[in-house]
Automatic annotation (TrEMBL), chains A, B, C, D:
Domain of life: Bacteria
Protein name: S58 family peptidase
Entries under PANTHER family matching the protein: BLR5678 PROTEIN, D-AMINOPEPTIDASE
A molecular-function term among this protein's GO annotations: aminopeptidase activity
Similarity remark: Belongs to the peptidase S58 family.
Pfam families: Peptidase_S58 (PF03576)
Biological source species: Endobacterium cereale
Length: 349, 349, 349, 349
């Protein structure tokens, strides 16, 4: 793997949108959200990993958070979807990994949750797993990350700055024929006089005609069109699951603006959850009637725009932070190299 | 039209389910709900009408109610569906009428709403209209009810007992080859120690092998399989739109128990709304954040069962209250007669 | 209304995407598709109209076409949605008009279809109507277009070049705070060696930060964010309704690239249909089993990209062809003027 | 486990519906469909298993079958849902197992499929797994079936008669407070003069007020209301994925007729696929355009009724064939016994 000096988009003097970012310009600007990676790089063939996102630091199964899933193109293996839709909540951390690792990721989330204090008698839980296909750099058929490695991503989760690029679930992903990976961004918006944070984290692995902040990126030749993306949205705004679904859908606005081909082979998913204490579905509140403060339909539009902006920027960050990667193409059984996007080319625009 | 003495199912000594009914055993047991009919019977060919359901006595556009729509088989022309899904609310009364009258019903709801005090500058509203096809008894192509007649149904809406059978939107409908129509029923259930009312009103116009409270009704020969049903659920339980959707879906449990064939030609729709003051989306609450008390997922199941029971009973009431009707079959251009279900046969079971 | 000389985007030397356009760069490049407008401009207050799209020149009720609807944000009154989803087809022409005209448009489609030769005994039909809200220029509460005017749009439908801008259903619409309207564009793409046409027609009435072919349009000050868009996609590619839905969804890719805010108040709908003779659901084919040639999932991606490109260009055409319009704001009860986009500013970029 | 003599519903002289059954009255009446079980009964605590359903005897990944999923209540962990919806097909066998075994079942399907001849370069596949919660008899937290045990179910799949009751994925399930399990039934219906087979297999684990062929089953006291059901529909009728979805939805008609409470905690899923050679999506057909013969909307209703009947009967078969089971309640950490339904009580009705 190359040792070039990678930076985030804003360090190149390029910005997206007009809302302010949070302090870290990361999903972790939403208080309590933690992110963990496990990166599996071994020999010539293993270039994969997993990334965990925890909505809060407590027991998520006991204190569930309202959530929603939006599927733009469902050629993917996202786990947990139907229960999220039915109940409007998630009750576990989220794991991102590769396409053939979903079963092992579910197993890791189950083990993690069953082992938590207070969950000794839990017999049902809905593990949430997103994936994209890293087989252009990784021997995806070989069973990595293992269940134990998946667990390491969960264990590694922490608040604060998020490692981006060819790391965790982004270790082997490819975007626009260039190296993709994990990227994040955030916005702070005022709704009815109150500031709220919105953060997005993406695992980019798709294609099209790359457009960076409105300008085509023309430096490379053949651009790849296939692949997928998973986008996770966190917000501290008090929202019901119906409006969280609408938030999640706005990720596709950011996706489209990067020049995505939105092709048949894409698995394009966005999950949104609220971390607001007041809408958390605690054991106590779930006993009968509870009052949840929620933002009205009439005032959510600024949050929608924030999601569009943060999604677009998170995607580009996943590329500017990713490094050229040598690995193995499991579809063709050949060595492969995927170049990082040229920061020089971006600066020259 | 025959002058036989029609009664509701319970008057025949037959009951459905195990929960108590409300005082009227009608959708109007949910406080504030009003129902109005216009019945159009003229000459040999006009056997149609419209039925209005008002969620509360105020200005529904200003004080919207949370609502949801469930579509079991979408071969129908239900108006207003996508906005109900997106915003989780209704902002107008509901009109039921015949298949080719939906446009005129929208027009009537628009006129009604635009004319209300406080709505002088309203420029967008989502009229909600359900329909089934009464062309086996009615010259449906002839443009009745007119817009003015639709308006009469809205104007006639009142709380209290609901007229059932071959009336309003049920004037020309057919169920199981027998006369269908408007029927209603209600249940009172206790959730976490608090009693809530659930009421259902149906426009029955479908078929299959009729089963009344578990027993096949074998009195008639050829049973018709086609047609549709629209079911409206009202409750005073404080529910979010997501759980109202689940309530609406349970109508199909009641429908199935009557022996419905659930055929290709069915337009099977259920709309549910909550009348609870505390979840009403008033002008004031829609300005920013508002706290809404809602029942938790964990405790809603008794309401689900209440809907199954009330739906089944409302359907049978629509038949036992309906009278044999002579009219015109617009599909065959011939006179037609649809017999009422035999109360004697039901009593003898 | 101003008499400035308006042109389409390509006449300004600006193009979108990389696929070729059809001969007319219009939805009517898809053989058989016809478009008709009625434009209602009267006095100071009436600035509205309707636009009809006919999928083929025959009896659409008898020879239905496979179709699908995609809803991005459902704050709208689109009529016919649930039956399109259930049956995967449309059986009437499509009318676009204003928000409060949907009922009258349904009535006009019903009259049109019932009156066609061969439909003498038709008793059920699913009128398809899209709308956006032209109340910023039009006295939308005043009941125009009338049912008869709606019928005129249907009667006016013809193949060949399509009139764009402030015409038909676009007479009073507003996009990005500038004059929107009707726009169209098309692409020709080769799939497995066979060329197919894809055409898009839009009624633009939404907002955000306008981006034209990747560049922000900065000429005006306060940009409006609210509003809606309806997009109609026609193709001669043989597609099943499932893949037509995916085609329809790609319209939102084009929409996002124009800088759409995708706000709460948007009613963003896309309808797609195939005109291919071989997938038409004729009376004969509907009798039992029929063989339909359809493109495989694996090869549809070029059509998806074509839709993204044509949608984006159709939107911009709706603006470059629209003229500055003086009218009446029904929400504020005041005169209003909406300026056309400056072609000079676009040329100078 | 008891050794009582268990029989299918028809052996008790009770039948459901009016269509003929297939030769075996099983899902395997649909030619080519194979079913395999692994049953894990060990010590006092392990009462679980898995059941595999293979749509045909070839390489399902290469020769995919059109399929659709219907979700009535999505409180479940069904895997593979979004890709089934998007592409209208399945490309792997289906595994049913317990709630916490979904990850291991995915892993087993992946291993199975990757190892098949012709799949050496496959890097993406969509494993389909259904589940219900057998924790009232099984130590569900203990990780059984293992991945290897899941694989045994796949390896055991065979055509011919299907073992029912407390076997495979039904080993530890509970229905109406009585022992549930695996059940199956089939129907043969004529559509436009051609006979088609429809088979249903269920994993029953839900509750309500049990109704057997229209009559309440009153023999037991406290009836349990919670739980889930997964229903698999196979047919040799040539259907597109859209009509397969409608077929799947009709399972809920059969479910409702058994007295299901349709409670909050249910995970109620139905998957339908067509085994017709002519609609199979072979490698060859997926290259470009292929012609698929499909039944028209207008003629599918008899298949809908067949599904209602076969679903109801499959559920009751799952109970009449199940044996009283002693095990372990993982939610309460106590031994538990679930009685089989009394065949004597059924005969006496």
């Amino acid at each position: 793997m190359s040792s070039e000096n990678r930076v985030r988009l804003r360090a190149l003097g390029i910005s997206v949108g007009h809302y302010d970012t949070g302090a870290l310009n990361a999903i972790t600007d939403v208080a309590g959200v933690a992110v963990g990676h496990v990166t599996c790089v071994e020999g010539e063939r293993t270039r994969t990993g997993a990334t965990a996102i925890l909505p809060h630091g407590g027991n998520v199964f006991q204190d569930k958070v309202p959530a929603a899933l939006a599927v733009f193109n469902g050629f993917g293996k996202f786990a947990g979807s139907t229960q999220i839709v039915e109940l409007g909540e998630i009750e576990t951390p989220v794991l991102l990994t590769n396409t053939l690792g979903v079963g092992r990721a579910i197993e890791a989330i189950n083990r993690h949750t069953l082992a938590q204090t207070g969950n000794e008698r839990v017999v049902s839980l809905n593990a949430v797993v997103g994936e994209t296909n890293d087989s252009r750099l990784n021997d995806i058929r070989a069973g990595r990350p293992t269940v134990d490695e998946m667990s390491q991503a969960l264990a590694a989760a922490k608040t604060g700055a998020v490692e981006e690029g060819a790391v965790g679930a982004g270790t082997g992903t490819v975007a626009f024929g260039l190296k993709g990976g994990i990227g994040t961004s955030s916005r702070v918006v005022s709704v009815a006089g109150v500031p709220y944070s919105v953060g997005v984290l993406v695992q980019s692995n798709y294609g099209g005609k790359l457009t960076v902040a409105g300008k085509p990126y023309e430096a490379e030749g053949a651009h790849d069109k296939d692949g997928s993306i998973v986008m996770i949205v966190a917000t501290d705004a008090p929202l019901c699951s119906r409006n969280l679904k609408r938030l999640a859908e706005r990720c596709f606005g950011g996706l489209a603006r990067t020049g995505a081909a939105l092709s048949n082979g894409s698995g394009d998913y966005a999950l949104a959850f609220s971390t607001a204490e007041d809408v958390r579905r605690t054991t106590e509140r779930r006993k009968a009637v509870a009052a949840y403060p929620v933002l009205s339909n009439d005032v959510v539009s600024p949050l929608f725009e924030a999601v569009i902006e943060a999604s677009e920027e998170a995607i580009i960050n996943s590329m500017t932070m990713a490094t050229t990667t040598h690995g193995y193409n499991a579809g063709t059984d050949k060595p492969s190299t995927i170049n990082a996007i040229s920061l020089d080319a971006l600066k020259r625009r």
